[in-house]
Specification:
heterodimer; A: about 100 residues; about 0% strand; elongated; B: 4 helices
């Protein structure tokens, strides 16, 4: 049991570290992105990484509470991406 | 080696696979040098990266004893909405002319997102 849990703890720590680095890289593209399309894409990627971090938090604490949080943030991320893209395309969100 | 040990090992390996795909997607987002090319990399994060992490969450909850299939909802939602948002972002890139404009359609004179109405032709584009 202990060697499996050791490997799991190592995997959780390594995944937290790697996903945090990926989040920072997406933020770099958000800052330097030359066009508005790159910025929307970087925001979408950052939302998806945030969902991954929340799922990881749920695994590491061993609870099921974070499932609803991840689902609602997935919905908000999709809606905000579509709203931002529609605002750029049409100048209005709901016509 | 019991069944729960095997489950915990499988969950840890799924986590590492998801982390590698998340990192690869972000590195591609930073390193590619064209807007349309940049759209290609982060799709890996949304499908394989998050999919593997949610699979690890499911396997780990089954290995601990109180398993559930709730995470399939998030996976299905992400798989359904990823093409829609990618379509919108591609339309924005074509609209802002941040890429090479695609060849003209066979019937109409131009793509609708690039089409300026007749009465707006003399309005100066500000940005």
């Amino acid at each position: 049991m202990s060697s499996a849990m050791d490997f799991m703890n190592f995997a959780i720590g390594a995944t937290f570290f790697i996903v945090a680095i990926a989040q920072v890289l997406a933020m770099i593209r958000l800052v330097i992105g030359p066009s508005i399309g790159d910025r929307i894409l970087a925001l979408d990627t950052m939302v998806i990484h945030a969902i991954g971090l929340i799922v990881l938090l749920g695994i590491s604490q061993g609870t099921n509470i974070f499932f609803e949080v991840a689902l609602i943030i997935a919905m908000f991320g999709f809606i905000s991406t579509v709203a931002l893209a529609r605002f750029v395309l049409r100048g209005d969100i709901i016509e | 080696m019991s069944m729960s040990d095997i489950g915990i090992y499988a969950a840890a390996i799924c986590l590492l696979i998801g982390a590698v795909f998340a990192l690869v997607g972000s590195v591609g987002l930073v390193r590619f040098n064209d807007s349309m090319t940049r759209m290609h990399a982060p799709t890996k994060v949304g499908t394989v990266g998050i999919g593997a992490m949610l699979l690890a969450s499911m396997i780990y909850s089954f290995a601990r004893g109180d398993g559930s299939f709730h995470e399939l909802l998030i996976m299905a939602f992400l798989f359904v909405t990823a093409p829609i948002s990618a379509n919108f972002i591609a339309k924005v890139i074509i609209h802002r002319k941040a890429c090479v404009t695609p060849p003209s359609p066979p019937r109409d004179d131009t793509w609708s997102t690039l089409n300026v109405p007749e009465e707006d032709r003399d309005v100066v584009e500000t940005s």
